[in-house]
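Example complex used in Figure S2.
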Amino acid sequence: MILQCVFAFLAVSAFCLLFEVPKKLVPVGGLMGGLCWGIYLLCLKYGVSLYGANFIAATSIALIAEILARVLKQPSPMFFVPGVLPIVPGYSLYYGVYNFAVGEHALSKEYFIKAVMISMLIALSIFAVNAVFRVNWHTKPRKN
Amino acid sequence: MDYRLLMDTSILAGEIIMENGGEAYRAEETVNRMLNTSNAKHVEVVVMGTSMVATVSNPYRDAITATRRIRRRGTNLQRIAEVNVVSREMCEGRLSLEEAFHQLEELREKKQYPEWVRVIASMIGVMGFTYTFGGRGMDLLFAMLCGVAVYAVQYINRYTGLSGIINVALSSFAVSVVAVLLYHLFPNQMNPDTVIIGGLMLLVPGLAITNSARDLLAGDYVSGTARVMEAVVTSLAIVLGTGLALLLRSLI
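Predicted assembly (396 residues):
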């Protein structure tokens, strides 16, 4: 499992280069990716459902990304986009196509629904975390 | 104050953000902040996913409007970060308008990593994801070949000028075909599924999914739905490319 996280780290670091992340932040992005995959695997290991595991991983990555963005004064996609990469549904999408090609239509539908659900869960986790960070804690209410 | 140059500079900043995978609300905020340094009475910026309009107007003066259509769409997080820096420095008065304009112009074409680094990066990227999705041994080597295949297709498409969607379809077709061919050459030494999944990770619309969520949350429904459609259509292109290759496989 640790080896899997190391490979996720490697892969995401490489993707960071393709996304033109600045040199200093490439290892940070890679770590986010490795962490994301680690959380996902841990959740699955302790009996969380597939969707739950995706949601927990995405939410923790979104949270860390927002904090890092404020600490390092960078736009938050810099950390979030690489971090969430390992759980973007490439796997379900492929098996959806594969099963369609071999004629297993019921199974293919299941995988496609899975892909859509996981995408929506990632979006939902950003919703939740961003909503918290968008609250203006310091200012007084605006007069209309 | 030179209103025209200010308008050109601001809309260029917004354009760079939208071209390189930034969110619409980020572009709107940046352009708005930059235009507001003119203390004009009315400043309006509207970003609608694939196009943007900005207007500055004062009483007793002609209004200035600029419109841009966003044609290129890529992912370049460094440019977004640097546009942020330039716009902040300009708004705080540490950077003159002319300098800001020149910096943005340079920034627009700036690339950090040479071509060979990107080739190796796509090889390692595909290899790493092949491992995390269960590929072992020879799979990793073949995955690297798939990474090169994707990069080659994207490199050629830079010159053919095909649209982004066709580019994705062709790339996913290339990944799948290379994996399937390798499987036929070395039948018992690899699992083509994990290799193809690793290759597809290069193409899945992760950025579109995250950005659509952010834009929708910011109340920007036009840009948000545009991004959702981008994610859907990109996925369909992947399905098309991979599906064709897998059908060929079942025919052989």
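Chain B has two domains: 3-108, 115-251. Chain B has a mean pLDDT of 88.
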